[in-house]
Design brief:
The complex is a heterodimer.
Chain A (H helix, E strand, L loop, with lengths): L4 E6 H18 L4 H21 L4 E12 L2 E10 L7 H4 L13 H8 L2 E6 L5 E9 L1
Helix pairs in contact in A: 1-2, 2-4
Chain B lengths: L5 E4 L2 E5 L6 H18 L3 E5 L8 H16 L3 E5 L3 H10 L7 E3 L2 H23 L1
Classes of the chains: A alpha+beta, B alpha/beta.
Chain lengths: ~140, ~130
């Protein structure tokens, strides 16, 4: 079990801090090295989006363990910001679609690395991305 | 102070990436490598990633850019020491780094560079004839 943990994301230091906290949590919950890396990389993509797009490049990561179920031990991670929001969530999930300087593979890439990825966003309302991953 | 030290071994520049990489370190590396390639005339670059635990799309793109930049300055790039978990994650991310040579470790990377140089020399003389 893992109690809720919050990490402020601001600037590049925030990306590194979020990655470290996510890896530590994944390791603590018994995820193997490859899953630890998948989770950490997904968090890196999401935290980078915050730094790149959110107002003032500020946001927050929150994570906790999910109740043990038939899917095994689960980790849930939220990355939230009060930025401009995503106008077309469906488009943002397509490879190669970008509004910035990236490759446009941040969100779709992150999705491939975890079991579930949900985006809650609307223009002017900020963005919350939730990822979940389980292991047995 | 650069957080990615670069050492020269004969005609090769070896850059050793540290564990927790900041974006600015990666960008600094790109410009210092290009400077050094121009100044020294080295024709090989080894990027030692053995300590790196996370390569996201930003860093993946940067590795690609370093390799392309080095190529334009007449040097070949070999990425060495990728951790298996990082390699798997890169493929899943969709970043397979086409056009970037790889090797298991620095020693094999140096051998790899020698082979690439030799092949390049053969091709070069072929064209000259």
């Amino acid at each position: 079990m893992l109690d809720e943990l919050r990490v402020a994301i601001q600037g590049e230091d925030g990306i590194v801090a979020a990655r470290q906290a996510a890896r530590e949590a994944a390791r603590g919950l018994g995820f193997g090295p490859v899953d630890q890396t998948r989770i950490t990389t997904a968090v890196s993509e999401l935290a980078r989006n915050v730094v790149r797009y959110a107002t003032g490049g500020k946001g927050e990561m929150r994570l906790w363990s999910l109740p043990v179920s038939e899917r095994g031990v689960g980790l849930e991670i939220l990355v939230a910001d009060d930025g401009p929001g995503i106008e077309d969530v469906k488009a943002a999930m397509q490879d190669g679609v970008t509004s910035g300087m990236g490759l446009g593979m941040g969100l779709p890439g992150a999705q491939r690395l975890v079991d579930e990825l949900e985006i809650d966003s609307a223009p002017g309302r900020g963005t919350v991305v939730t990822i979940r991953k389980w292991h047995r | 102070m650069a957080r990615i030290p670069i050492v020269r071994i004969r005609n090769t520049l070896v850059a050793t990436f540290q564990k927790d990489l900041y974006d600015r370190d990666a960008l600094d590396l790109q410009s210092s490598l290009n400077d050094l390639l121009e100044r020294t005339g080295c024709d090989g670059v080894l990027l030692d990633m053995s300590m790196v635990e996370t390569v996201d799309s930003f860093l993946g793109r940067m590795i690609n850019d370093v390799a392309q930049g080095a190529r334009l300055l007449g040097a070949h790039t070999v990425v060495v020491g990728l951790q298996p978990a990082v390699a798997i994650t890169l493929v899943e991310l969709g970043l397979e780094l086409p056009g970037v040579h790889t090797a298991l470790d620095v020693e094999r990377g140096l051998v790899r560079l020698q082979r690439i140089r030799a092949a390049g020399a053969r091709q070069g003389s072929g064209r000259a004839r």
